[in-house]
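Morning run. Coffee first, then this:
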Amino acid sequence: PLAGPVVAAAVIVPSGCRLPGVHDSKRLSVAEREQAALLVRGRCAWGIGVATVEEIDRLNILRATFLAMERAIRSLPEPAGGVLVDGKFFTCNLAIPAETVVRGDSRFCEIAAASVLAKTHRDAIMRELDEQYPGYGFAHHFGYATPEHLERLADLGPSPIHRKSFAPIRELEQLCLTLDE
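And here it is:
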């Protein structure tokens, strides 16, 4: 996304717990994701971590993502004995073992559940930000670089929640500065 925070979730699935319908969040419809999130919140221990737009711009998106992940793990209501992370690598300041898994959200229920919670939480944040910054359409595209978002960016310029370190936003801000001169 070009706008909004990065959100991560951590989920501890109890032994023997089944989570039907919980899959990779990108493959679920909005309604399916919302239902899956309700199921996860009701049956599992979970935590959410957020890294702000300012942290993304200061640290870079990868480090901000790791920060959000660490915050999610720390916010769990019970300690995690280890961490499964979707992706190729992960670093954090936690004294627990971590294993990375490429395409983990399609292989591990825990990762899929965390993916669902992170996506639904971020979507809710973007709906709220749509009310604070009307005209951008955040409730529709959730900050992703869709044609609609790019068109509105060109018309309105970047908002305070746009990631200024991302090339399209940085270039647009430079263009706006040039036009102002």
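The radius of gyration is 18 Å. Good start to the day.
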